[in-house]
Amino acid sequence: QVQLVESGGGLVQPGGSLRLSCAASGFTLDYYAIGWFRQAPGKEREGVSCINDNDGKTYADSVKGRFTISRDNAKNTVYLQMNSLEPEDTAVYYCGAVHDALSVQAMCEQLRDISTIVWGKGTLVTVSS
Q1: I want to staple 120 with a disulfide (CB 3.0 to 4.6 A). Which of 6, 46, 52, 55 is the partner?
Q2: Is 79 exposed, middle or buried (0-12, 13-18, 19+ CB in 10 A)?
Q3: Are 70 and 81 in contact (CB under 8 A)?
């Protein structure tokens, strides 16, 4: 069964850090583009950071310099290191994967619009004092 499972969310104070993990089962991530997306209450799902099969990376302007995406193909896992967290980062974070070669340009938008994308169920991140 093809599946993505996110973990690592939780409650953190402003300025704190979390590392999210997206573990794949039933398939290998080597030739997949992976994206982290988030959805806050009452808002649309937005792309946060994406990484392609050549290790090209993109970040939303709101997280540049604070978040870092990485992949460990040996562990079949993609990570999102989140530092200097702000209350505006509060959301459910989802990872999505597509078996496609995507360019870095607007990668998250490309990934989100592919109908065969595999989604995880999400992990909640709450940034609050």
Answers
A1: 6
A2: buried
A3: yes
